[in-house]
Amino acid sequence: MLDNVDPFIGTAATDLPLAQGLAATWWWPKPQVGNTHPGATSPLGMVSACAYSGAYPTGYGRYTKNTEGVPEEMFEQLQASGFTHFQQSGTGAIRKYYNYVRVTPMVQPLDVLGEAWPLRDEVAEAGYYAATLATGVRCELTVGTKVAVHRYTFPEHSSARVVVDLSCGGLDVELGRTVPLRAQVESMGHGRAQGTVVMEGVPLSVYLDVDSPGWRQMLWYDRRLIDGGTRLDFDSIRHTTLRPFGMLFMGPAAPGQTIEVRLGFSLRGCDQARQNLERECGQGRPAFDAVRSRTQARWGEHLDRVQVEGGTPARRTVLATALYHSLIKPCFADDESPFWPTPGPFAFDVCTMWDIYKTQLPLLAAIAPDRATDLLESLIRVCEEEGNFPIGYRMARGADRFFRQASALVHTALADAHALGRAGLDWNWALVHMVGDLRRMYGEDFFEHGVVHPITHTLDLAYAHHCTAQVARALNDKSLADDLENRGRQWSNAFDPSTGLLRDSEFYEGGKWNYSFRLLHDMAARIALAGGDEAFVDKLDRFFGFGAAPVTQPGRRPQAAEMAAGYALNRFEGLNNEPDMEAPWAYHYAGRPDRTAQVVHAALTWQFGTGPGGLPGNDDSGGLSSWYVWASLGLFPVAGQNLFLVNAPAFARAVLRVGGGEFVIETSGHRETPVGVDGIDRDSPAQYVQSATLNGKPLHATHLSADTVHRGGLLHLRLGPEPSAWGWGIRPPSLSEPPATPEVTR
Fold first, then answer.
1. Which of 708, 680, 688, 590 is nearest to 634 (CA)?
2. pLDDT for 107-164, tens place per residue?
3. Residue 148 pairs with which residues in a beta bridge?
4. Is residue 206 situated within a structural domain?
5. Is residue 130 part of a domain?
6. Sign (positive/negative) of CA torsion 505, 510, 516, 521?
7. pLDDT tens digits for 437-449?
8. Which CATH number fits the domain that encloses residue 187?
9. Backbone conformation region of residue 708, classed left if phi is above 0, alpha if psi is from -120 to 50, else beta
């Protein structure tokens, strides 16, 4: 899989062939750009490194901030004023952005620092990024888990320099700048320097070791050198008093001479930053190739946890890159929490749970279970320290910053982890926090009235009560479990029985149709509320555009009337947005897995491709890419229910390495279908499961327990070109129905 990764996918505005068939009826309201970056990353590591232009939202690229339609360009061409660290991956508007510690190789005076030069000859691989600036400097970047290494090859020059700007943070867009509050910079000589800047309450420390024999090193302030100075201290910085500051290394460069810059990072001071640097780079020079090789090996080991056979070259590239994007975030910085002093896991860039809880967290639980457990331990600690489970958690303080998006989503991942028997967590203590968190924010109104607006929070809170009840019952607290379960049944208060849809309310980035087909814990009762199977399927068919005419997508600067007309369609938003990404599998609960097959096939065929414009919308920290991985495997996790739904896969054979074993999905009758640039015949119809076996025994249900998948085994799916009766009779489990029929029928 490693050789198929293309980090440039998603870095430019969506550029997919015009959709046909079912996919042509879907309407995309959100930004048509992946918002990824091609910089060097390590699997779930703390540090990234990429060319910095100041563009939205990663600092890389050409686009300005946008919330709908085709993004507008800030710059006519790719450019960079240096190379920064801690980029976001695929996010949208999260208010502030990192891009800290800008390193700029220059052959100009310090006065022009901040000027951007065109980029050419870009190369990106997992763990590696390179480009040439118009100044003639070849720039290569790699990272470890807590370090970055830059290698610059200068043209011949009498006064080349490497400038480190510690004041830089954020983007060149309105409200995108982060201003340091306090800072300290020290030059120790012999190519070594260190500094700490406090950004949004977080002390970010860096320790540098620059391999530049014979060069001078100096501090600078306001683009003026401080000759002979060894330390700068800023006790209080304001927007009005901020002037750029940092360190500089300067000297003659012979043709082809390389300068290596090694940076260790920490959130617990310069000493720990130095230790991190020494641990990953050693004390010898140079370190670039060794760090790059180790990171590439880590990527290979992680990406090999999903293997496929068959597929066109483009489909394999899209899958490999989707898996790669799924494993960039969250950032794990073990023993680095600046907010509590004890060692242990610390995770940030959980941006946001609303984006990742349905798809990415179950993927981590399957292929990186230790890290998934570490994430939950970190989130429990956040709850202890800040009083609530976060919906999104950045490096900065403020765990409730994203509370408007949703409520109580961590409960789903905790319930799944407990059902899988994950060790390493104090489950009684976790339950205390799960229960307490149910009463925060919108939860208090839900507790008192059984319904809350925005109405989607009613669904969130009812579901979280159900998830918490499962943990309480497993821990033998029957009284608590019964009370939580009763409150969990109040999901029905969110629906209007006269329409079978959610009640009128405010909705976060969607409408009531987008949210009305969420996979609840009692889908049988949900379908009955809508009027039964046929009525429910009719509503789903309308939502997914069966029989509807093609629509035109929003362009650049869409007008309000255009957007209003699109929203009035009440249509599936494709994979352009998160609220309805699980809706295709709602058909399973009404006995129509064939419809799921059609919708998913259309999405995999038309909504993803190769090249920079190959994503239909923001990747959102890997939430979208994780959806693609699961859909390609023919599985979909139902977060919080210890459950997977089964569908026709996109590959003839796939292997999911889970724990110490393998879960294999193999097919007979599989037909290759195109994607991306190799889509010569895109009108090939969907394939449907005709019959299935699990470990050689007939499987008549369209679902598997997560325990079954995580234990490993062999799922064989016989595929065909026409819908079959498979899965029509046995529905996935629902709270109000008797215990589910066993997966395997003898």
1. 688
2. 999 999 999 999 999 999 999 999 999 999 999 999 999 999 999 999 999 999 999 9
3. 143, 263
4. yes
5. yes
6. negative
7. 999 999 999 999 9
8. 2.70.98.10
9. alpha
